[in-house]
Amino acid sequence: MSTATVNGITIGYDDQGAGDDVLVLVHGHPFDRTMWHPQVEHFVSAGWRVIAADLRGYGETTVVPGTTPLHVFASDIAGLLDHLGVERFVLGGLSMGGQIVLECARTFPGRLRGLVLADTFAQAETEQGRRTRNDMADRLLREGMSGYATEVRWKMVAPHNQAVGEFVARLMHDAPPEGAAAALRGRAERPDYTEILSTIAVPTLVIVGSEDEYTPVGDAEYMSSRVPGSTLVVVDGAAHMPNLERPEVFNEAVEELLAQA
């Protein structure tokens, strides 16, 4: 693990492999960069330099209480890559990470060679959704992560995938409540990225688990139909974490994207 001081915080990250072909992976909520282990291992072996960082408020990166908007996460990613001397890269994210990827596509599209949008959606939050996210943020600060992690475990991962479920549960239990709450409040106020989709001019993979209740296949179809030339892959039997539940299928889809980037 390495660290860098960016935007006034310390970011924990892994930077493995070498060369000009760079894949950057953005984790979801409430996880950390270790959720990408199967992808880091696979794509480093395939000759890519792979960078995975803990987002602000998660893992080994500084926790900043309050509200963390998506544009702050995107600025942290850009700052880390500036620190590492990386100008252009393929960028992938899952769930909240995918929304951060869309914010990056909005703010610095010229740096992107390709996109992976996994189990995410582009629309702005609904009024009910804003209330739900803010209520959950209050709950996490009040109770900690354990109750939430237990409740959502089998929505994150399909129930037949016990080993992955245990790993994901540990990630959620270990997440800092203040960081998770700040991200929830930021996501409650996120913009609608629908208009951004038609402007994306790089190879794009939209991938989703067939059993995902948080971001159903319809959300993936909505994005893919609006991103010119994008590829849609539905991972059969996976829920919200297909990169962990069926890594061989997920990695094969990403490989096809990287061949175009």
Automatic annotation (TrEMBL):
GO terms for molecular function: hydrolase activity. It comes from the Bacteria. Keywords: Hydrolase. Residues 22-247 form the AB hydrolase-1 domain. The keyword Transcription regulation does not apply. Transmembrane segments: none annotated. The keyword Phosphoprotein does not apply. Gene3D superfamilies: alpha/beta hydrolase. This is Alpha/beta hydrolase. It comes from Lentzea cavernae.
